[in-house]
Amino acid sequence: MTGSGTIEVHTVNGDIETVLLTEEEILRGTDRVAEEVTRVYTGTQFTVVSVLKGSCIFASDLIRRIPIPLELAFVGASSYGEGTEAGKLVVNFIPSEKEIEGRRLLLVDDILDTGQTLYRLKAELLKRGAVDVKTCVFLDKPSRRAVEFEADFTAFEIDDTFVVGYGLDFDGHYRNLPYVGALRREIYEQARPGV
Ligand code: 5GP
Ligand code: MG
């Protein structure tokens, strides 16, 4: 305890340099994608497969705007970043056989960057017996693509800037920001090397 009576609180908001997408803009984009998804899947059985951890916020807002029956499943995947083997994807967990076989799946991810994650996950789910796999992303950075891959549904296209918030992290933090923003330079510079 100090005698000053004030404690300086470090908020995640204070680490943001610029806001790229406000909460309102995000929800308008999510509404539009939800309508497109609803149109495509009306009259069919389908399962939304949220790619953890990044897509948890987008997927939860998205499914609450889709007024037709759907099931929900999760897949866990992580890609190694710079400094390690490029494009190496680790699938930490995958839905059970009965949640995949013979099912129509909508894979939902936070961001389509090089394309490796969704390209590989889609192939894996088809190999395990899904009849159809479509993809839906919150953000798309088309300029970064390393494999030929396009999402079936996209909420927003952005330039090649590293962004955080609304599920997207930097070193495990900032997923809880309700908007999408770019971090202040000092934050990167303070980070552990290789992160
Ligand atoms: P891809 O396999 O398409 O290259 O990579 C997708 C993954 O890379 C995303 O799910 C995300 O984890 C990470 N990623 C790519 N760009 C960004 C970004 O701008 N911000 C954050 N936080 N993660 C990113
Ligand atoms: Mg991810």
In a nutshell, what does this entry contain?
The protein has helices spanning 23-41, 56-63, 97-100, 116-127, 185-190; strands at 16-21, 47-52, 71-79, 89-93, 104-112, 132-140, 153-157, 163-164, 180-183. It is built from five helices and nine strands; from the N terminus they run βαβαββαβαββββα.
Describe this structure as you would to a colleague.
- The protein is α/β, with parallel strands linked by helices and 195 residues long.
- The protein has one domain (22-162): 3-Layer(aba) Sandwich (Rossmann fold).
- Helix content is 25%, strand content 28%.
- It contains 5 helices and 9 strands; from the N terminus they run βαβαββαβαββββα.
- The protein has helices spanning 23-41, 56-63, 97-100, 116-127, 185-190, and strands at residues 16-21, 47-52, 71-79, 89-93, 104-112, 132-140, 153-157, 163-164, 180-183.
- Helix 1 packs across helix 2 (56-63).
- The longest helix is centred in the N-terminal third of the chain and has 19 residues, at 23-41.
- The protein starts with 15 loop residues before the first strand and ends in a 5-residue tail after the last helix.
- Guanosine-5'-monophosphate binds next to strand 5, helix 4 and strand 8.
